Every structure is written in C-alpha cells, then in structure tokens.
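Risk register update: the risk of archive-format incompatibility is retired. Evidence:
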Amino acid sequence: MSAIFAPGVGRIIDRGFGSRIFTGSAIIGSLLLALLSMVTELWQFYAIWIVLGMAMSGGLYEACFAILTRVMGAKAKQAITLVTLVAGFAGTLAFPGTHALVGIFGWRGTVLSFATAIILIAAPLI
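Archived output:
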C-alpha cells in the first residue's frame, strides 16, 4: 500500500504540503498502531495494515527525503545523510529494545508503546 500511494504523496509534497503530510502520517500511523494492539480477528489485522501502509507512504524515508530536498535544495544531501545515520542507529537500538518490550509487555503492549511514542514524541518534533 505504501508503494501504491507513494507517487500521489510525492505530488502532494511537491505542491508544498510536505510537513502536513509527514505530521499527518505520524498521527494517523500512531492511531492505527493503537488500533492494531486491539485486534481480535485476522481480517482486522489485515485491514489495519492496509491503511497503515497508506500512512507509511507519507511518513517513511521517501517522503522525508522528498521534503528535505524540497525545503533545503542543494543542502539536502547533508540532511539526508544525517537522517540516514540517525535512523540507522535508531534501528540498531529498536530491534533489541522491541525484543525486550515484548518480553515485558507482550506484542500488544509493545505496539501500544510505539503508538504512544509516535504521538507524544515524533509527531510534535515533526
């Protein structure tokens, strides 16, 4: 779903609505993760992941890099390199951290904790 919606999101970013797309995707993604933590049926899991894929089209690397390129122009290369470095480091910490959280809270609590972190930390920072 992310790949299907990415071209449309890119056109919206090109029209100058990048920060709204990026922030909105974080907020919607957070709400969907919270819903994901409450699923009881397989169809609910798939339905949420389909819509979550749509939100990801506006909140992952491609959208971030498009926004940085639009806003920073020729200086975007440094920003993109920094984002890639920080995100890679964060990913390195996220895998063992997620494993530890699942051991303590289970998968539902872990997903809910990520939803909370996105809405309270990531979205305001965007």
